[in-house]
């Protein structure tokens, strides 16, 4: 079941019930703590413009759940994007959650459906969809390459949960190595995904030589120089994995971080060691497409996808090889 079809299990289309929503000004927001550099407004407003609807997406920098509820119920709001550190705390202000959101334990998207004439806010997690679509758009063979092979994630927070879900649900990995500064956070991650996928905490540099190399690595932490001993240890483990085997032509690194620059330390180190890389801006673009499909209730046209990816290219720079396949139209 795709995400749009699944959304109707929570109620009827508000756009079919009230077609004037497409011709009147409506508001959409991203709610987060530090979002001044977010790429989402530019991408979402580009898609609204391409549709010819008088809808507007803007920033709402807040960590206050009451601010969130006020915006959702002001009569103009039709959609919400929820980012750190609100993905868990704001979920309780929504009326229901999809299976993905429940398993992952966090929401990043709110959309409206109608039940018995009443407006209901539904929470879902499209970060996992963004990871899947960004990887497969760039490397269509990725799922066949990762199936039955180990993966690795850096971090154990909310974004890591989305990465675990994507790796388990769509990439069929055998187990997931977790590199994180605190074992306690990894234990909590393991508990959340108990009986779903095998997670292994990698805590020392000595373990790297004994591991089967991961086929895909997903970074989910900020791009900051390591400060304390635990952060230095995690960086050393990651660098050792990236540099262990120079024959990495089929291995993939995704870094979900894209601020202050999409060319993060992980991105650059992986590329220098021959890994195929996917930037955080590519993931954000695919997340925005998934959100737009839930709000607009239509797939995004190929021409619009290409415009979005041009924005991504602008942010990353000329790092893609000339023979990289074109990004396909979004049908999530």
What does this structure look like?
- This protein is of the alpha/beta class and 332 residues long.
- It folds into two domains: 3-125 and 287-316, Leucine Dehydrogenase, chain A, domain 1 (Rossmann fold, 3-Layer(aba) Sandwich); 129-281, NAD(P)-binding Rossmann-like Domain (Rossmann fold, 3-Layer(aba) Sandwich), CATH 3.40.50.
- It has helices at residues 3-7, 14-17, 40-51, 65-72, 99-104, 127-138, 142-146, 158-169, 183-192, 229-243, 265-272, 280-296, 302-316, and strands spanning 26-32, 55-61, 77-82, 96-97, 109-115, 118-124, 151-154, 176-179, 199-201, 216-219, 252-255, 276-278.
- Strand 8, helix 9 (183-192) and strand 9 form a beta-alpha-beta unit.
- The radius of gyration is 20 Å and the shape is globular.
- It starts with a helix and ends in a 16-residue tail after the last helix.
- It holds the Pfam family Shikimate_dh_N.
Q: If you average the pLDDT, what whole number results? A: 91
CATH topology of the largest domain: Rossmann fold
Q: Approximately how much helix is present in the residues?
A: 25-40%
Structurally, how many domains make up the residues? 2
Beta fraction of the residues?
Answer: 15-25%
